[in-house]
């Protein structure tokens, strides 16, 4: 499939608006599923993958729209698509050489940045291809998140989310959720709420994960820095046909629209277990938010940032989120989840709760004090979501 197919599809519409909407969804899905290829140096009318990248397609890291997987080979090398290493420091700075993410793949003729191994549950980076990383740079894993129902979360008004924020903890409950404001917009998506909209998140992914330019990140070399001139000058697919980009506004909008329409998971249990609130989980994992059009969204998140303590801290600030803060991860879809938390370190709900600290310390302690049967009830409830 060539990119031009999608442009032509758009012109074929002599159809009803319902047909047009489903055609748009299908085209968005095709772009989401599509494995991009690199541009040969001789022509620009091709895709423009990379030069450096983590995966070739969105679906590779979000299999069936779901969460990524982690695999570790016998020699400890981390594979598993949907798992990346984020780079940065407490000041919010990227690594001066390697940028904001370690790209472990490269197109022919370019050098992948490094290989990542898992050693005693910690990362070991080998074969750094562009010299030493800054000693100030921290690195931490990020497992891809499931994409279902995010359109509903995009439709919750800023006011509804901000009504739950309590940055100075005025109500003295030890919990001080705050928004991650990104260029004046409220961040909602990704583990630190760095993307205010699905369109921006899709553009971030095209740039950081796949190495492609969009109207939002116009560099065709994605996350490559000035210290990686071979990459910056590498082959690209920017083309006049596509607004001098690799992914033009029409394509980006189709991908965002596809994400917008992915249906929310349906929980087996509709009612929130009172114990969930009594223990204090609901103070962050808000059982229900209401969209601008009045729809109820049982995502179990306030979409705000919380200091989760030393155990989960990664020392990487993103936007206004500090190295200790994370967006409350929605709990819908837990019945399908095998790896929990931002880097997938927990393999069960119980283990995920055990990692909670900081603002969630009190809730965790309440959970640990529950009788065995109450614990069991709470865990069964979570596993039904
Ligand atoms: C290399 C793997 C990889 C690829 C390719 C990738 N993603 Fe992701 N995706 C991730 C990771 C990892 C996260 C979490 C990122 C973070 O927290 O910073 C994520 C997060 C997201 C989110 C936010 C989900 C939420 O709950 O907030 C969306 C939406 C998303 N990706 C869409 C896309 C789209 C669209 C594409 C293709 C253009 C794409 N992704 C390509 C790994 C990937
Ligand atoms: C102070 C806010 C806060 C409280 C209170 C809280 N959580 Fe969380 N929860 C979070 C944040 C933030 C994350 C994401 C942390 C990360 O990925 O590093 C999270 C993640 C999780 C996850 C993993 C979700 C996933 O898909 O990876 C589970 C399960 C969970 N919480 C359950 C609970 C339960 C049960 C309680 C009550 C005992 C609770 N939480 C209390 C903020 C909170």
UniProtKB/TrEMBL annotation:
GO molecular function, one term: metal ion binding
Domain Cytochrome c: 267-385
Keyword Nuclease annotated: no
Name of a matching Pfam family: DHOR
InterPro entries for the chain: Cyt_c-like_dom (IPR009056), Cyt_c-like_dom_sf (IPR036909), Cytochrome_c_Peroxidase/MauG (IPR051395), DHOR (IPR010538)
UniProt keyword annotation of Iron present: yes
Protein name as it appears in the record: Cytochrome c domain-containing protein
């Amino acid at each position: 499939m060539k990119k031009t197919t999608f442009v032509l599809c758009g012109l074929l519409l002599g159809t009803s608006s319902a047909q047009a909407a489903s055609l748009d969804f299908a085209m968005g899905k095709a772009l989401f599923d599509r494995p991009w290829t690199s541009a040969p140096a001789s022509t620009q009318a091709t895709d423009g993958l990379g030069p450096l990248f983590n995966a070739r397609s969105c679906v590779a890291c979000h299999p069936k729209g779901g969460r990524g997987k982690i695999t570790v080979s016998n020699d400890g090398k981390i594979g598993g698509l949907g798992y990346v290493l984020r780079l940065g420091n407490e000041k919010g700075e990227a690594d001066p050489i390697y940028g904001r993410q370690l790209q472990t793949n490269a197109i022919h003729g370019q050098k992948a940045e490094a290989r990542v191994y898992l050693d005693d549950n910690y990362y070991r980076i080998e074969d750094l291809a562009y010299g030493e990383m800054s000693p100030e740079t921290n690195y931490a894993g990020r497992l891809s998140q499931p994409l279902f129902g995010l359109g509903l979360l995009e439709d919750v008004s800023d006011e509804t989310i901000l009504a739950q924020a309590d940055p100075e903890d005025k109500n003295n409950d030890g919990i001080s959720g705050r928004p991650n404001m990104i260029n004046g917009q409220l961040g909602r998506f990704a583990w630190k709420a760095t993307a205010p909209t699905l369109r921006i998140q899709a553009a971030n992914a095209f740039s950081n994960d796949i190495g492609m330019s969009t109207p939002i990140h116009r560099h065709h070399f994605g996350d490559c820095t000035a210290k990686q001139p071979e990459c910056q000058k590498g082959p690209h697919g920017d083309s006049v046909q596509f607004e001098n980009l690799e992914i033009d506004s029409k394509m980006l909008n189709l991908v965002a629209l596809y994400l917008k329409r992915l249906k929310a998971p349906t929980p087996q249990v509709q009612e929130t277990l009172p114990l969930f609130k009594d223990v204090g989980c609901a103070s962050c994992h808000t059982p229900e938010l209401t969209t601008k059009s009045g729809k109820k969204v049982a995502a179990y998140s306030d979409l705000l940032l919380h200091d989760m303590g030393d155990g989960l801290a990664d020392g990487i600030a993103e936007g206004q989120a500090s190295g200790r803060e994370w967006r409350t991860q929605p709990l819908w879809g837990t019945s399908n989840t095998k790896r929990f938390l931002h880097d997938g370190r927990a393999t069960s709900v119980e283990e995920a709760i055990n990692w909670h600290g900081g603002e969630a310390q009190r809730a965790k302690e309440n959970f640990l004090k529950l009788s065995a049967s109450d614990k069991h009830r709470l865990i069964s409830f979570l596993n039904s979501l």
